[in-house]
Input
Amino acid sequence: MTLRITMTLILAASTCIVGACSAEPQTNDTATTETQAQPAADRQSPGGATASGTVVETVNAANYTYVRVDTADGEIWAAATRFDVAVGDAVVVPLEMPMQDFHSETLDRTFPVVYFTSQILKEGEAAGSAMPPGHPPISGASSSADGTTALTDPVEPADGGVTVARVWAETSDLAGTEVTVRGRVVKFNGGILGTNWIHIQDGTGSAEDGTNDLTVTTLGTAAVGDVVTVKGTLATDQDFGAGYTYKVLLKDAELIVD
Output
């Protein structure tokens, strides 16, 4: 009987550690985590799904704009880097990073589900065109369908570092090792699951198969368009649940902005 109780306690403790003792995602939207966000980590829904509809409510919180959108399938909440939008606007929302039971400390409000997305587009607006106000254009870049910038101009590799294409080509050899990569930030997602998520590209690899883009987690911050050097451990086949998996991920990287 004692052994059975002990094993039950061990199993419960293990479950608590893995799940952080809460079903609620470990993220918030305080001014700190909303600053510089080009939300949100980090992956589009399968097939690049989007929802179109009319804005019926909008509210700003720190550097985010939240919108409630009336779509053909019902109302949804979504948030992106603060942008100009008004009730009645027709918008397209990429269904990225759905966060369940998300509590906004800034708004003191809990959303059953909110999509933290890279970009909410107004009807007729091209993907990638809605940079934060005053943000300079990214040299040598074009826009992909999901709002992630596709870099075309090469970035010189770091001394002793590797290119993004090489990371993908030599994943099996580099997995578990410390890797240094230099590239340009094409997407920044702040304060998700206790860390910042960025996409970097250096002009190598193929946009068709995704080998031109590397996802990085870091406590450092950078703006879209910055050239950065990141050094971290290369991890493979990372699964964060809810269908969010990463074949290649540079984890807990040190980040230096050029």
